[in-house]
Design a protein that fits this description.
alpha/beta, five-stranded parallel sheet, 47% helix
Length: 596
C-alpha cells in the first residue's frame, strides 16, 4: 500500500466518521482535500512504516481531543486490508505498520509501470511556457546561464511528468544597445584597436571578428573598407569606438547569427532542446510592441508626461510608473517585455496558460513591474505569470574560485565547465541545488569517481543494479516463483518505503518548481540501495580462496543463497530500484550507465 493509498483511505475514513456522527462538530465541508492528509515516513522505524497527523489536523474542527479522534481513525484503519497494526502515539499521531505483502506491492507496481511509474496527469490541459537561459547573443553562455540551462530543462521534464504541455523557449535579445556595443567591440578588434570602454572583451571577440571578415571576403565584400565613423574618445582618452556606420552594421548583420549558432550548439551539446527560439527584434518588426501599448492604452493604463509615454504600473502594485517610450522617441526596454508577455499569452500555436520566467539574481527589481503588467492585461500575477530568481554560481578548485575561460576573459562558460567535468556532472551538480540558493561547483570533487561525488554515487547505484542483473542471469535466477511478501527484512523495508515515496515526490517537485528535490530523492534512494546491497543478496558471493582463514576470511563477505522465491523477489526489488533511478536521472537530463 502506497502513501497515496493510505492518504485516500484516511480521507475516506474522515468522511465516514462524519456520516456516522462520530466526529463531533466536524462536517464534510470542513474536511480538506485528500492531498492535505500527509502520510510520512517516521524517523524512528519502531513507530511503524507510515504516520499521519490527520487527527491533529481535524481535532479543533471536530471539537475533540486529538488522541480521542486518532483512536477512531485507528479503529477503522486496523480493519483495512494490507494493514498489520495501528498505534496512536504522542498528542495524536497515527502510526501504521503494513503487512509485508502490502508493503512490497510497490515492487510490482514499479515494474508494471516501468519508466511511467510516479508520472501523473494533474497538470494536464495546461500549457506552460518556460523561458530560460535567454543570454544576450554577445558572447558564450556563462556559468549563470549554464545553471539555468540545467535547472530549466530539468524543470520542464518534471512538469511534463506531471502532465503539463511545456514549451521550452529561448529569448534572443537581438535588439538594443547591447547589440550596438557588441558590434562596436568587433569593429575595434578587427582594426586592432582597444576594446571600447562599454564593449565586450575576450578572445572570442577576436575570433568572431575574424570569422566576419573571412565570411564577408568569401561573399566579395571587403568589410574593413566600408565607411566607418570614428567615435573619438572620452575625457580620459579612452576610445569610444565608431558611431553608426555601414561597417558596424555589416559586422552586426553577420556576427549576431554566428553567436546564435554557437549558443544553439552549446545548448544542444548540453542536452537542452528548445521548442521556440524567439527574437526580440521581431516584436518591433511585426508591430507587436505598438499593439501591446495600444491594448494597455485601451485599458486606461497608459498616459503621456514630459514628452514620454508611461505605463501607470502603480495602479497594479508597482512602486513607480514606468516609461515605455522615451522623450526622444526610442522605446524603453520594458516596452519589449510588455509585448513579449502579450505574445506568449495570445499565440495561435500553444498560447501560454502560465508564462514562467527564469531570471538571474540581478532581476529582483524586475518583478514588481512585470507583475503589474500581468495584472493590467487582466491576468493573475503568480498564476498566469511566475518569475523565478536564481542565485550565483561559484566555480571552485583546490578551495579557490576559478576563472578558467580562454575565450571569454574572466568568466566561466558552459563549454569550459563541460570540458572540465562532462555534461552529466555539470547538469546534475547545477540542478541538485535549489536555484534560490548560491551554489559552489567543486571541480576536483565532480571529476572524481568517489562516493563523495553526488552524481557518481547515484549513477553507480544504477550500474550496480545492472551488474546484479548480469550476475543473476549467469546464476539462472529469474522472476519465476517470486514471492514479494518475503521482502520482510529491515533493509528490504527501507528500499520499499523509498520506492513508495517517488510518486508524491515527483508531484511535489512539479508543483513547487523544484527539480532539485528529484536529485535529493535519488541520493537518498541510492544510499538506501547501497546499504541493502551490502546486507542482502540476490546471488551469493563466494570465497575465491576456500583455504582463507582469519582476517583474510573476515574481509571477504560470504552470504548463503536465499531460497529461490526470496532470491526472485529481491531481483524484482533490485530492478524496481534500477527503474526509478533511471527515470529520475532522465528527468535531470543525466545518463544512467550500465557499467562504471
Amino acid at each position: 500500500m502506497s502513501p497515496e493509498a493510505l492518504s485516500e483511505l484516511i480521507f475516506n475514513i474522515a468522511n465516514t466518521l462524519v456520516s456516522e456522527g462520530k466526529a463531533g462538530t466536524l462536517t464534510a465541508d470542513l474536511i480538506p482535500p485528500q492531498a492535505k492528509f500527509a502520510v510520512m515516513r517516521p524517523k524512528d522505524r519502531a513507530h511503524g512504516d507510515w504516520a499521519s497527523n490527520a487527527a491533529m489536523q481535524l481535532a479543533k474542527k471536530a471539537g475533540m481531543k486529538p488522541r480521542d479522534l486518532a483512536e477512531l481513525f485507528a479503529a477503522e484503519l486496523t480493519n483495512a486490508d494490507g494493514i498489520k497494526s495501528v498505534e496512536v502515539a504522542g498528542p495524536g499521531f497515527i502510526n501504521i505498520t503494513l503487512d509485508s505483502a502490502s508493503a512490497a506491492a510497490v515492487v510490482d507496481t514499479v515494474l508494471e509501470a516501468g519508466s511511467d511509474y510516479g508520472k501523473n496527469d494533474h497538470l494536464s490541459g495546461k500549457t506552460l511556457n518556460l523561458e530560460f537561459v535567454s543570454a544576450n547573443p554577445t558572447g558564450p553562455i556563462h556559468i549563470g546561464g549554464t545553471r539555468w540551462a540545467a535547472v530549466g530543462d530539468s524543470m520542464a521534464r518534471v512538469l511534463e511528468a506531471n502532465g503539463a504541455k511545456v514549451v521550452r523557449e529561448y529569448y534572443f535579445n537581438d535588439h538594443g544597445e547591447q547589440i550596438n556595443r557588441f558590434a562596436k567591440s568587433l569593429v575595434a578588434a578587427a582594426h586592432g584597436e582597444e576594446t571600447p570602454i562599454d564593449g565586450y572583451k575576450g578572445a572570442y571577440i577576436d575570433e568572431i571578428a575574424k570569422r566576419v571578415i573571412d565570411e564577408a571576403n568569401a561573399d566579395g565584400v571587403d568589410v574593413l573598407s566600408l565607411p566607418r565613423v570614428d567615435g573619438g574618445a572620452d575625457q580620459d582618452g579612452n576610445p569610444l569606438g565608431e558611431g553608426d556606420s555601414e561597417q558596424r552594421e555589416e559586422f552586426r548583420k553577420r556576427a549576431v547569427p554566428m553567436m546564435f549558432d554557437e549558443i544553439q550548439r552549446s545548448m544542444k551539446n548540453f542536452r537542452v532542446n528548445f521548442d521556440v527560439w524567439f527574437h526580440e527584434n521581431s516584436l518591433y518588426s511585426d508591430g507587436e510592441v505598438d499593439q501591446a501599448i495600444a491594448d494597455l492604452r485601451a485599458r486606461g493604463d497608459i498616459y503621456e508626461k514630459d514628452g514620454a509615454t508611461w505605463f501607470e504600473s502603480t495602479k497594479h502594485g508597482d512602486d513607480k510608473d514606468r516609461v515605455i517610450i522615451k522623450s526622444d522617441g526610442n522605446y524603453a526596454y520594458f516596452a519589449a517585455d510588455i509585448a513579449y508577455y502579450r505574445n506568449k499569452r495570445h499565440r495561435e500555436t500553444n498560447p501560454a496558460d502560465v508564462a514562467i520566467y527564469m531570471r538571474g539574481a540581478d532581476h529582483h527589481g524586475y518583478i514588481g513591474r512585470m507583475m503589474a503588467m500581468c495584472e493590467a492585461f487582466g491576468d493573475k500575477p503568480g498564476e498566469n505569470m511566475q518569475i523565478l530568481i536564481g542565485q550565483l554560481v561559484n566555480v571552485m578548485k583546490d578551495g579557490k574560485a576559478v576563472r578558467m575561460s580562454k575565450r571569454a576573459g574572466n568568466v566561466v562558460t558552459i563549454d569550459d565547465l563541460t570540458d572540465a567535468i562532462g555534461v552529466d556532472a555539470s547538469r546534475y551538480s547545477l540542478a541538485r541545488t535549489d536555484y534560490n540558493s548560491p551554489v559552489d561547483i567543486d571541480l576536483n570533487l565532480l571529476a572524481s569517481h568517489s562516493n563523495e561525488n553526488p552524481v557518481y554515487y547515484v549513477q553507480y547505484a544504477h550500474a550496480r543494479s545492472c551488474n546484479v542483473d548480469r550476475n543473476a542471469a549467469a546464476a539462472g535466477i529469474t522472476y519465476e516463483g517470486a514471492d514479494v511478501s518475503l521482502l520482510d527484512t529491515t533493509a528490504d523495508g527501507e528500499v520499499l518505503a523509498a520506492l513508495a515515496q517517488w510518486p508524491a515526490l515527483l508531484r511535489e517537485a512539479g508543483d513547487l518548481r523544484a527539480p532539485h528535490r528529484v536529485a535529493h530523492y535519488l541520493e537518498d534512494l541510492a544510499a538506501t540501495y547501497h546499504k541493502w546491497y551490502n546486507v542482502e543478496r540476490v546471488v551469493p558471493m563466494e570465497l575465491t580462496d576456500p583455504e582463507a582463514r582469519g582476517e583474510q576470511a573476515d574481509a571477504i563477505r560470504i552470504a548463503k543463497a536465499p531460497e529461490p522465491a526470496r532470491a526472485a523477489a529481491r531481483l524484482k526489488l533490485n530492478d524496481a530500484v534500477k527503474t526509478v533511478i533511471a527515470e529520475g536521472l532522465d528527468l535531470l537530463g543525466v545518463a544512467a550507465p550500465d557499467k562504471m
